[in-house]
Amino acid sequence: MSAENSKINGHRVKEDPKDIQIPVPWGYVSGKLWGPKDVQPIVAIHGWQDNAGSFDTLVPLLLPQAAILCIDLPGHGHSSHHHNGQFYYVFWEGVVTLRRIVKHYKWDQIKLLGHSLGGAISFLYAATYPDEVEFVISLDIASPCVRNITKIASMTGSNIDRYLKYENLTLDSMPCYKREEMIDIVFDAYENSVTRESAEILMKRGMQPAMERGKYYFSRDARLKVALLGMISMDLALAYAANIKCAYLNIRAIPGMTFEEPENYTKILDVIKLGAKKFEYHEVEGTHHVHLNNPERISGIISNFIKG
């Protein structure tokens, strides 16, 4: 695709992305680099059990001069899985992974775009390194999910046992499916959050051939299904929110994602608003994956925010 000749809705779009690999101690973090190669990219981080393809429909609609590095988090998409015995604390290790990327490229500042889990990781990173983040764009999430602490305490044991069960799965024991069956499974699992077309986009990086001819298995690490451990309390979320200094954009999908205590979303934003260099909040009609299903509803908001 030529960026000079290709347009979407009258806007010039980006050239096809370049595949990248960033070395980490357990292997590599994979990604897709969109846009010019001579400017520092915005780092885009996908949601839980999604992958870098989550931004495939949105990025081409953003400013052509903006570079976007969409990564696969560890265990997702084409990125390396953790070694056996290593647990996924998805929020916290996301911050560590992001820090590794910053150190790898020797960046002094970073710009972040995150959906769901990716937005939560961006929140934590901006609060942890408040002087090193230029802006955060967060899609349909305000902070890591704040769960009822009593529920977390009561479910800890069962989650550990689930993790150990998934840890013992081998490739020959992993369930595999025909391609159309896999798309059906993904479409149903997202409970109308993604269209069938969006499910197919996610599965470009979300499945790989099985040993049985004509069948596939999910490329993401099955251990990622256990994500309860490592959640934070509301008090801790508010303390992190108070540390954020950068420009901040939050786009909330309506109805979007369902939260146990939806009022916490507003409470977190109210604290961020007090310290942020610039603050914007927008609501758009759509599902939790509105950025993938209907990117035109948010692309203008994001581009205007990036332009400042």
Write the layout of secondary structure elements.
Elements: E1 7-8, E2 11-12, E3 18-24, E4 27-34, E5 42-45, E6 68-71, H1 90-105, E7 110-115, H2 117-128, E8 133-139, H3 149-167, E9 177-178, H4 179-189, H5 196-206, E10 207-209, E11 215-218, H6 234-241, E12 247-255, H7 263-275, E13 279-286, H8 290-293, H9 296-307
Parallel strand pairs: 5-6, 5-7, 7-8, 8-12, 12-13
Antiparallel strand pairs: 1-2, 3-4, 4-6, 9-11, 10-11
Helix pairs in contact: 1-2, 4-5, 6-7
Q: Can you tell me about this structure?
A:
The protein has 308 residues and is of the alpha/beta class. The chain contains 9 helices and 13 strands. Helix 2 (117-128) links the parallel strand 7 (110-115) and strand 8. Helix 1 packs across helix 2 (117-128), helix 4 (179-189) packs across helix 5 (196-206) and helix 6 runs parallel beside helix 7. The radius of gyration is 19 Å and the shape is globular.
